[in-house]
């Protein structure tokens, strides 16, 4: 089947969307680094041989920042030049950024393999989404993976003006417990 080659079944839908938004040389943000898998996927999408492209990564747990750093350094020689990891709440992203991102990715919830007591919470996720909406380049995308039953589901009420934003919610019809994907496109 031709479709399977283009979109490998193992590739999550959010990454398939990111790939259509990002170009080599772009800046992107991983707002929830966790173990660094999304950060690495983003780095591979934007890094080019000339050393352009840039990723900002945020997490509030030092173990997550450390795991992400190790994964990136094991997988890419470009990490030190092209990635800035910050042990900082994503609601404060504006304190660190020096470039406008084309994509800000949130994968909400707790650190896989870590304690379940530290999770993303609406009190900081909502301000972070607003910060992301301010810094995003026009034409860029905010991607948010939200788990069913998680307190962060209240962010589904996020209000962005229809004149400036196209907002979609992707839901798996045949797997109701699967996370929802919010795609917020800045016009
Ligand atoms: C589901 S994990 C992310 C998984 C990650 N994207 C990956 O590929 O492994 C969610 C992460 O969000 C982090 N987190 C929770 N609250 C945060 C906040 N206010 N700012 C930044 N990160 C936060 C958690 O520490 C956790 O590592």
From TrEMBL:
What Gene3D superfamilies does this protein's entry cite? Vaccinia Virus protein VP39 (3.40.50.150)
Q: Which top-rank group of organisms is this from?
A: Eukaryota
Query: What is the protein's species of origin?
Result: Spirodela intermedia (Intermediate duckweed)
The record, for InterPro entries, names: MnmM_MeTrfase (IPR010719), SAM-dependent_MTases_sf (IPR029063)
Instruction: Provide the protein name.
Output: Uncharacterized protein
Q: Which Pfam families match?
A: rRNA_methylase (PF06962)
């Amino acid at each position: 089947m031709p479709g399977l080659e283009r979109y490998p079944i193992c590739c999550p839908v959010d990454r398939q969307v990111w790939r259509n938004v990002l170009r080599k040389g772009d800046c992107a943000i991983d707002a929830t680094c966790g173990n660094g898998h999304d950060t690495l996927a983003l780095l591979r999408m934007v890094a080019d041989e000339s050393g352009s492209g840039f990723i900002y990564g945020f997490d509030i747990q030092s173990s997550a920042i450390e795991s992400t750093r190790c994964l990136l350094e094991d997988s890419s020689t470009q990490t030190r030049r092209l990635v800035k990891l910050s042990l900082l709440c994503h609601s404060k992203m504006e304190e660190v950024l020096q470039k406008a991102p084309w994509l800000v990715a949130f994968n909400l919830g707790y650190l896989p393999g870590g304690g379940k007591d530290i999770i993303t919470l609406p009190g900081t996720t909502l301000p972070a989404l607003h910060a992301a909406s301010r810094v995003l380049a026009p034409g860029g995308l905010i991607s948010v993976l939200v788990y069913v039953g998680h307190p962060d589901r209240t962010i589904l009420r996020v209000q962005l003006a229809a004149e400036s934003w196209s907002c979609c919610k992707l839901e798996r019809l045949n797997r109701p417990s699967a996370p929802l994907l919010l795609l917020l496109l800045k016009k």
